[in-house]
Amino acid sequence: MNKALEKYPGAIWNFSQPIEDNVGETLTGTKGSMALKIFGEDLKILEQKGEEVTAVMEGVPGMHDVKLLRDFGQPNLDLTIDRAQAARFGINVTDIQDAVQTAVGGNAVSQVLIGEQRYDVAVRYQNPYRNTARAIENVRLLSPTGERVSLAQLTKVEVKDGAYDIFREGNNRYVAITFNVRGRDLGTTVEEATKKIGEKVKLPPGYTIGLSGEYESKQRAEGTLTIVVPLTILVIFIILYTMFRSYKWALLILLNVGMARIGGLLALVMTGTYLSVSSGVGMLALFGVSVQTGVIMVEYINQLRARGHSIADSAVEGAVLRLRPILMTMLVATLGLLPAALSHEIGSDSQRPFAIVIVGGLISDLLLSIVLLPTFYAWIARDSDQLPAPEGSFETL
């Protein structure tokens, strides 16, 4: 369809669905899920700069379906009032405007009542006297002296290209360029396009560029995550410190949380999935499982030391004996999310990155928890560490 439509120069097209149209129009105010807007006063300058921006965006890898929503191209019949001539005949501007309105558009002179329904009765000139520029020029007005004066004597009549659509946002005019991103992640593509536009397109004073749609939502979500993630880590640290009464063990478990993220990122790279808001939420969900495995391991090793085992023996035995419960915890979450991670059906685009991050993170967390966590524990542990009281019944699984 795209190749077939490219044969028609000047045509603007877009592929979408009714619901997608409604969502896109809500986000951007245009028929597209992503739009770049140039704000300013002069429509001609806006369209000129829109053409320059469109040319730059088409050269950015990953940018597709770049379309400038043109404002100009509609032929308009402009009547510019000659005030000197109007004053000469004693006719004011309002009379001239009313004459044009009555002749071409019509004016309501009465109403017809049908039950509770009201209909305006409008009168205007017949077609032969208003359907051409020549006919409109010959529309007559009656001057105070009784002389009949034509519009051609009172106005300058010209046919000019004008705007058939004027888009506004925040009481500012703008021209929109819609686009899609395919084969590349949204963030770096838009950032590269913005950088090139800033280098190659010079905007006059008072003209600005703004982005709306999915990219704007992505930026807003990332801004929220930059606040949520540190707060989450801080809350986890406070809970761990309350549990162990030691900064050392709390930081060791947080290190395990950081190692789990490595597996999530590697899973995204291996599957060719871009880092997105969905995958970022998956990272947050991964924190909880990583903390759980770290707590299981560190608490068990501390119990072994409290019962008289050496640091090295406790670390080794804790890694071996805690393998089964940690493995069971990992498998429950991994097998539950594996179908979502492998799905490519309709609607899977939002859930697949979330599941991929958790599955990859849990697999790596299992390997790292069994090997690296006990190793780091043995490195930082000291005989002077404060240990919990040994439990009465201590079973090994």
What would you say this structure looks like, in words?
By secondary structure, the protein is α+β, with helices and mostly antiparallel strands. 57% of the residues lie in helices and 18% in strands. The protein contains 14 helices and 11 strands. The strands form 4 sheets. Strands 1, 2, 9, 10 and 11 form a 5-stranded antiparallel β-sheet that branches. Strand 6 (140-142) and strand 7 (148-150) form a beta hairpin. The longest helix is centred in the C-terminal third of the chain and has 33 residues, at 348-380. The radius of gyration is 36 Å and the shape is elongated. It starts with a helix and ends in a 17-residue tail after the last helix. The model is unreliable at 393-397 (pLDDT under 50).
Radius of gyration: 36 Å
Uncertain segments of ≥5 residues (pLDDT<50)? 393-397
The averaged pLDDT comes out at 81
Structural class based on helices, strands and sheet pairing: alpha+beta
What is the end-to-end distance? 63 Å
Largest sheet: 5 strands, antiparallel
Give a quick precis of the structure.
This protein is α+β, with helices and mostly antiparallel strands and 397 residues long. The protein has helices at residues 2-5, 18-28, 43-58, 83-89, 93-105, 133-137, 151-154, 186-200, 214-244, 247-271, 277-306, 311-321, 323-342, 348-380; strands at residues 34-40, 63-68, 72-81, 107-114, 117-123, 140-142, 148-150, 155-163, 167-169, 172-181, 208-213.
